[in-house]
Amino acid sequence: MTSIDGRPLMGDVLTLFRKHGELSRTDVIEMSGLSRSTVNQRLTALFASNLITPIEGGESTGGRPSSRFVFNKNRGVLLTADIGASGFTVAVCDLAGTPLRSAAGVINVWEGPARVLQTVQDAVESLRDDAEVCGIGIGVPGPVEFAAGRVVNPPIMTGWDRFDIAGWFSQRYSGPVIVENDANARAVAESRTRQVDNLISLKIGTGIGAGLVFNGQIIRGSEGAAGDIGHTRAAPANDSSAPHCRCGNVGCVEAYAGGWAIMRDLAEHGIATEHTADVVALVRQGNFDAVRLVRQAGRVLGDAVAGLVSILNPAMIVVSGQLAECDEVLLSGVRERVYQRALPLATRNLQIATSDLRELAGVSGLALIAADQIFGTAAVDDLLGAASLAR
Predict the structure, then answer these.
(1) In a domain? residue 121
(2) Is the pLDDT of residue 63 over 90?
(3) Residue 245 maps to a domain
(4) Are residues 181 and 200 in the same domain?
(5) pLDDT value of position 8
(6) pLDDT on residue 247
(7) Which of 15, 299, 363, 385 is the most buried (most CB within 10 A)?
(8) Which residue has the higher pLDDT, 380 or 50?
(9) Which residues form the domain of 10?
């Protein structure tokens, strides 16, 4: 734990409740190493600020709050929006990251930030009630400069480069705004839900991205570009027939395995589709060409992620996004190439599965990341005046 003069801070004590759930005073003493009197002081302050709440029926003596507490996830709400290339999901979440209400819509990210963000905000507003908004979480399909809240050189987001997304929402809401890569947000949700600290989350929809959580932390890289496997090269260097990608390069993974690429290939077989959801529907209907193309897309993805598996040795790969709804048709190709090409030791206990959270993975992860920022050690101690409480 971080500390002032060797003593855990207020935010650290709150983190214990956010991580472990219901705790007694004795639990906090044992986990924190603080004295009983100091724990009582910390709990009293957190209770007075409505950050923890007593468990109903818990023992209460001497006018003090109950001896068992839990993080007050209903103190307010978090507004979240998971923006993809051609669609979005918005949600109102509690402070533990659980979506309370959600909605989805269709957008075109190439229309630029002003139009897309206004559409997203309108959808969020349709879900709101009078609960206090504690923060905003926005996910986007491109590299993010996390501290600044803006995308940087996004391969497919024309007109978005360095647009101040956080500032756009800050003009409309009073709470702090975090902006995160959409695949990173999904990785956080999967990691926390499954309690797996070393995990790769693949988002496979119109485009392709990967979020990396290792030792329980997001790996963003120095420029926010970590995990962008969709725009790594899949074609041999001398392949003159490699397809062009939307990012302007040739032979990218996404140009073979993204939803838009599969739609392109289906059109060459005389099969018209308008959205990635149409591809999923064809697979479920058993359409030969759709099944073949999605399975081959899985093999391309498996090739792309096999190197990461050998280098990073994750415990799990979780696949979400619209194409993940093709289930084993897609996963069989991923597994085939990962187990074939990654190091045997790295794949010995590796699990590869689709997300149980499905379309809510992104908004849930964004809520968790926002809550980490809002209720992290420094923020809580600033709120409660830790220095005066560290006597």
Answers:
(1) yes
(2) no
(3) yes
(4) no
(5) 53
(6) 87
(7) 363
(8) 50
(9) 3-51+375-389
**Statement: residue 388 has pLDDT above 60:** no
With tokens 């998971």, the residue in question is: 82
Kindly report the three-state secondary structure assignment for every residue of the chain: CCEECCEECHHHHHHHHHHHCCEEHHHHHHHHCCCHHHHHHHHHHHHHCCCEEECCCCCCCCCCCCCEEEECCCCCEEEEEEECCCEEEEEEECCCCCEEEEEEEECCHHHCHHHHHHHHHHHHHHHCCCCCEEEEEEEECCCEECCCCEECCCCCCCCCCCCEHHHHHHCCCCCCEEEEEHHHHHHHHHHHHHCCCCEEEEEECCCEEEEEEECCEECCCCCCCCCCHHHCECCCCCCCCCCECCCCCECEHHHHHCHHHHHHHHHHCCCCCCCHHHHHHHHHCCCHHHHHHHHHHHHHHHHHHHHHHHHHCCCEEEEECHHHHHCHHHHHHHHHHHHHHCCHHHHCCCEEEECCCHHHHHHHHHHHHHHHHHCCHHHHHHHHCHHHHCC
Tens digit of each residue's pLDDT (9 = 90 or more) over 304-335: 999 999 999 999 999 999 999 999 999 999 99
- 130 and 116 housed in the same domain: yes
Amino acid identity of 262?
I
Query: Is 234 domain-assigned?
Result: yes
Cα separation of 267 and 33, whole Å? 64
Residue 291 and residue 219 share a domain: yes
Mean residue pLDDT of the chain comes to 90
- The verdict on 242 and 318 lying in the same domain is yes
Please name the amino acid found at residue 252.
C
Same-domain check for residues 81 and 180: yes
Say how many domains are in the chain.
Answer: 3
Do both 296 and 165 map to the same domain? no
pTM: 0.89
Residue type, position 245, single letter: C
Instruction: Tell me whether residue 307 is in a domain.
Output: yes
Tell me, what's the pLDDT at 161? 93
